[in-house]
Amino acid sequence: MRNVLKFLVNSRMIILSVLGVSLYLAISEYHISLWYILAAGTVMGVVFGKVFCRWVCPMGLIMEMLMGLSPDGKIRQMYQYHKVGCPIAWISGYLNKYSIFRIKLNEDTCKNCGICDKKCYIVAMEPQKYSLYKPVLEKPGSSYTCSKCLECVASCPNGSLTYKI
Ligand code: SF4
Ligand code: SF4
Using CA positions, which residue lies closest to atom 6 of ligand 2? Predict the structure, then answer.
């Protein structure tokens, strides 16, 4: 299961490209109502949290390609804050706290190595506020901004982070 998740995380840009372009074509060719997309994004939010932006959304694909052009991370921050304008991001970001699947830490096996925090863009933006493993800080996976890239889970060397029910 862990290897499947790693494979998915490593293939995320391919998955986002395929799903994003397919969704764009479906909307433009078949005139699918954006209300259906909003409903689908909300259902996905209830089950998985805010996965739509980084795994499915055509606009998310464009934003990530722009982010790739920014070595200093400024476009990354622009991406985070521009998503505030999307109703799917509002709803599913809020659902990060209540979704069925969530990122969980096994404190008994965690070695406090900090690798997971280094992978997380939320921790990078506010290291005094968030951490995936430090007990006194807030968990970024429950924050509005976490778009379930799952880099943290895939990077943990001993499987102390999981994404499960
Ligand atoms: S999935 Fe993990 S690494 Fe990605 S934003 Fe959420 S907490 Fe950070
Ligand atoms: S990468 Fe894993 S072991 Fe290291 S601090 Fe994070 S959860 Fe703990």
Answer: 116
